[in-house]
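Ops channel
N.P.: pipeline sanity check, posting one input/output pair.
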């Protein structure tokens, strides 16, 4: 009994492999501006770059769904980890743009990946914080011995819920997926996690439509009060990073790379300044991907792992913030 309790407590959760996928259709700001101009909506590369840092985003073609992107990212992460479908005993998809109302995108993905031995599969819905929420849930299940190897994916087709007549939101988002394979390990791993939500702020970022009686009720496109979101994001991202560092007995100096949710370069720069991190310590993909919501952190992580910036032993601070309002951080050794 004691031996078992001891072995469970000494388990850590380690990232064994990463993967990501972007749909091939890439739109630069100029491409998007030209498309919007046809509907009489005016925007420009200069405005988008100056306010957000975004230069391009990828959009899915008709008929491509969230689980299609998730499948590609998951296969790449499994290949990087050197594991197959039979090795995965937990599957979590973080998404706000699922294939269907139900079943979960994770269940649909499980079928596509050929994971046939009954591993649990479910979605986590925490909008742009979804990936840090899903990582935290997987970490808990691994450290308690419930699962040994988990596939955790952030995947989104936000282009499906954008109002292309609203220039204040439609220029900000993109589609994509990122994935990690997590495994139980005697070495760390995830060092600390910190999650929060505050439901008083539902209205500043939401997609208020619903389905009833076979009809879509309300508006199924994204609504955002950009300035309220901006202020909230800047505040909570610093708090979450500091809380995760405190829990791990670490300080600002113990972060090798910050991988924040890729919403807006100005929010990311502000967080980095508060944590006293130079620009070279922040992984930035928002310029090429736009805001891919739950997919943005694992997409950025995989980008920096594959280009060699992130190496084994580096200490990473992953941070999400989004609708709900939700926010959180995961501090880990890669
Ligand atoms: N192109 C050209 N002009 C535009 C556009 C556009 N795409 N969008 C807005 N404008 C105009 C506005 O109409 C306004 O014009 P006016 O002064 O004549 O009225 C002007 O630009 C300024 O608009 P603001 O909304 O005040 O611009 P702001 O500097 O606040 O930037 C932005 C807007 C980029 C959305 C900013 O508020 C922001 O980044 N907020 C954070 C929200 C965010 O990143 N959300 C992502 C989802 S949430 C998440 O992931 C955490």
């Amino acid at each position: 009994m004691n031996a078992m309790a001891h072995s469970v407590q000494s388990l850590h959760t380690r990232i064994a492999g990463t993967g990501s996928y972007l749909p091939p259709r890439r739109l630069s700001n100029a491409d998007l501006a030209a498309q919007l101009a046809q509907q009489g909506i005016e925007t420009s590369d200069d405005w988008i770059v100056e306010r957000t840092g975004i230069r391009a985003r990828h959009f899915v073609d008709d008929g491509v769904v969230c689980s299609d992107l998730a499948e590609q990212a998951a296969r790449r992460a499994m290949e990087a980890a050197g594991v197959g479908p039979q090795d995965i005993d937990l599957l979590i998809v973080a998404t706000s743009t699922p294939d269907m109302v139900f079943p979960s995108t994770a269940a649909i993905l499980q079928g596509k990946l050929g994971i046939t031995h009954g591993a649990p599969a479910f979605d986590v819905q925490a909008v742009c914080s979804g990936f840090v929420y899903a990582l935290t849930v997987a970490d808990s299940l691994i450290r308690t011995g419930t699962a040994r190897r988990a596939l955790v994916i952030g995947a989104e087709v936000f282009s499906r819920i954008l109002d292309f007549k609203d220039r204040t939101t439609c220029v900000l988002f993109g589609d994509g997926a990122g994935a990690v394979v997590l495994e139980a390990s005697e070495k760390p791993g995830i060092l600390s996690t910190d999650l929060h939500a505050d439901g008083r702020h539902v209205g500043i970022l939401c997609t208020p439509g619903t389905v009833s009686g076979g009809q879509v009720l309300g508006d199924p496109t994204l609504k955002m009060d950009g300035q309220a979101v901006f202020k909230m994001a800047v505040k909570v991202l610093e708090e979450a990073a500091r809380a995760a560092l405190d829990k791990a007995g670490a300080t600002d100096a113990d972060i090798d790379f910050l991988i924040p949710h890729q919403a807006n370069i100005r929010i990311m720069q502000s967080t980095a300044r508060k944590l006293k991190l130079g620009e070279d310590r922040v992984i930035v993909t928002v310029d090429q991907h736009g805001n891919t919501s739950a997919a943005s952190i694992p997409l950025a992580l995989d980008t920096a792992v594959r280009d060699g910036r992130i190496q084994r032993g580096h200490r990473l601070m992953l941070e999400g913030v989004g609708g709900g309002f939700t926010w959180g951080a995961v501090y880990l050794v890669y």
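N.P.: looks fine end to end. Residues 190-333 form a domain with the Peroxisomal Thiolase; Chain A, domain 1 fold (CATH 3.40.47.10).
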